[in-house]
Amino acid sequence: MTDVPDAELLERFARNDSEAAFAALVERYVALVHSVARRHTANPQQAQDITQAVFIILARKAGGLSGKTVLPGWLYQTARLTAANFQRAEMSRIRREQEAFMQSTLEEPANDTLWLELSPQLDKAMACLGANERDALVLRYFQNKSMADVGRFLGLEENTAQKRVGRALEKLRKFFAKRGVASTTAIIAGVISANSVQAAPTGLAKTISVAAVAKGAAASASTLTLAKGALKIMAWTKMNTAVAVGVGILLMAGTATVTVKTMEHYSEYYRGKTLKQWLVNLDDQHPGTANDEAEAAVRHFGVKGLPTIISMLKMSDPMHHNAVLACQILGPEAKPAIPYLVNLLESGYSNGYVGVALDRIGPEAIPALMNLATNRIGQPRIGYVSIRPGVTERAVDIDDGARCEAASALGNLPMYLQTKVLLHYDVSQALITCLKDPSPYVRTLAARSLGENAMNEATVVPALIETLGDTDFQTRWSACLALGKFGPRAGTAVPALQAALHDRKAEVRATAAIALIEIEPDNTAQLDSLMPALIENINGIGGRDINFRSTTADALAAWGSRARPAVPALLDAIAKSSSYEQQFLVADLKKIDAEAAAKAGWE
Questions:
Q1: Any residues with CB less than 8 A from the CB of 423 and at least 6 apart, and which?
Q2: Has residue 382 been placed in a domain?
Q3: Rounded CA gap, 464 and 482, in Å?
Q4: pLDDT digit string (tens) for 314-353?
Q5: Cα distance between residue 345 and residue 385, in whole Å
Q6: Which stretches does DSSP call E strand in 109-194?
């Protein structure tokens, strides 16, 4: 029945109770309805209950739907109302039971893309549209219909349908812009089209068809309750222009009761222990069964456990470190903890863990990190911070420590978020500001983070070139490293990096050589000028840093026999390396001088 129009299938079902006709409609639109439900609850079973309730409503109202009804739009609106009603009641229940101040999101963590920002607000934005505009968008981008098909569904000329879709998209764009999500209508349309409807669970359509055809007789009590509540809201909506106002009056007047499925009753215990008892076992330094079980407990409690976690995010609490680890595990769900994590940093707890937690929370934490990185606070207080892996922690002002951690965390954001998000918040400009910080540690980490982000080269590369003249050698070292991350886009930095080959510090000379190779990988003419620094890299800093040594060896191998002056240094490095690293260094050595490798016994 793939070619049978929706209206005809509805008529067959309404007139003859045709199970086949209804099953065809469910199969056609179950993914649309289920996707709306999933944006309102991360619980798969709850999403299926909402989806089933929507199709029970359709079965009950099939005979009363007009032949002009755009069924995808009607189903979308019904799913939104049903899911929103469910979420509203669920949020109220959680607030009562927890007596918490935060508003939890029931959104499943999404990929760090523009969809991550649009998804939680999409259905609210769609609710602000008129029915005609909403129907047009559902057809075009949720069902991926051609503009001609949209016009045919709506009874419009194709050009008229296109204008309606364009107006609706512009309203969405303005809605998102007011909420800090800046994009174009074209990008928003593409993101919605690609992500708004996901495949529904296997077998859900069949289950729904059986229950809905029987008008809910075969459905669970909770699903029927959900359907009845949504039907009452839909009836009231027809009498009011605003759903929220209508529901509010309905509830206050007491003319009807809106009931939704109650989630599993929240208990302060999980497998016989409270959340605080589980947190004791969180130990990232010694992973094992106890730590794994504790992480599972944190995920089980989810946002409902945040009041307990937040109460521990203070230096005076002996378990503040465990609470920070819990925030890392919860990720975006820990958004209400942002101010408490920031306060912990400002109190002197700067060892990298808070920065990771803020990174994992997502875009909402970026303004806090930028503010921390660029603003000095309080009076000098002594604390400790590690500038880079393998370097001993050094005593610094606690204020400096907080800015160090924030600058470092800004550099780690690309692991969690898409470039578009970082550009939106102008993270690079905040880090450029940090390059002028009075603390050399902050400047060092800011330079490194600019390389990790590797964006906005028009402004970042000149700032890093200027930083090559910094009085602190570790800051110069980080600037060289960062410029190399830009690759050929940092071509304007070549003269400054060539000058850095004569820096008084071996670390800077070695890193400048690596950066030049990354910027001009095909420039074999520079080999002679780089060779001293590269050999020094193998023997000097390279002897203490596997990544530098491997990078250098790979670069030398690309030049083949021309890199033979480096063979003695490579042989020495191989002899001092672990068996794991040796296999890579030997492979590079063979590319440079296979005979020398054989003579040394590295066949």
A1: 455, 456
A2: yes
A3: 8
A4: 888 888 999 999 999 998 899 999 999 988 888 777 778 8
A5: 12
A6: none
What six digits make up the tokens of 89? Answer: 């009641």
Q: Are residues 202 and 340 in the same domain?
A: no
> What does DSSP say about strands 382-385 and 394-397: parallel, antiparallel, or unpaired?
antiparallel
459, 492 in Cβ contact below 8 A?
Answer: no
| DSSP per-residue string spanning 519-543 | HSTT-GGGHHHHHHHHHHHHHTGGG
Q: Up-side HSE of residue 356: CA atoms within 13 Å toward CB? A: 14
- Does residue 416 lie in a domain region? no
Most confident of 69-73, 422-426, 493-497, 579-583: 493-497
pLDDT at 89: 60
User: Is 465 within a domain?
Assistant: no
Cβ(432)–Cβ(460) below 8 Å: yes
502 falls within a domain? no
Which of 353, 381, 405 is at the close of a domain?
Answer: 405
Asked if residues 340 and 380 have their Cβ atoms less than 8 Å apart, the reply is no
Total tally of structural domains belonging to the chain: 3
**Residues 249 and 278 grouped into a single domain:** no
Distances (CA, A) of 435 to 75, 200, 387, 404, 446: 54, 49, 15, 11, 6
Gap between the Cα atoms of 307 and 316, Å rounded: 17
Q: Report the C-alpha dihedral over residues 361, 419, 193, 187, rounded to 10 degrees.
A: 130
End-of-domain residue from the set 207, 223, 253: 253
pLDDT of residue 260: 32
Domain ranges, residue 575: 522-603
Residue 249 shares a structural domain with residue 288? no
Q: Judge if 51 and 155 occupy the same domain.
A: yes
Q: Using 50, 70 and 90 to split pLDDT, how confident is the model at 310?
A: very high
Q: Note whether 17 and 163 are same-domain residues.
A: yes
- Is a pLDDT exceeding 60 seen at residue 485? yes
Q: What is the pLDDT of residue 495?
A: 94
Mean pLDDT, the chain, rounded, equals: 76
Distance in angstroms (rounded) separating the CA atoms of residues 263 and 278: 23
Q: Which of 579, 561, 465, 471 lies closest to 515, judged by CA?
A: 465
Q: Taking phi first (over 0 means left), then psi (-120 to 50 degrees means alpha), and beta for anything else, what does residue 391 get? A: beta
List, in order, residues 6 or more apart from 493 with CB less than 8 Å away.
461, 464, 465, 468, 483, 486, 515, 519
Per-residue pLDDT band for 245 (boundaries 50, 70, 90) equals very low
- What is the SS3 assignment for 269? strand
Whether the model pTM is above 0.70: no
Contact assessment for residue 239 and residue 253, using Cβ atoms and an 8 Å cutoff: no
Are 169 and 57 in the same domain?
Answer: yes
In this structure, are 293 and 234 located in the same domain?
no
Q: In terms of domains, do 242 and 276 share one?
A: no
Question: What is the rounded distance in angstroms from the CA atom of residue 399 to the CA atom of residue 376?
Answer: 6
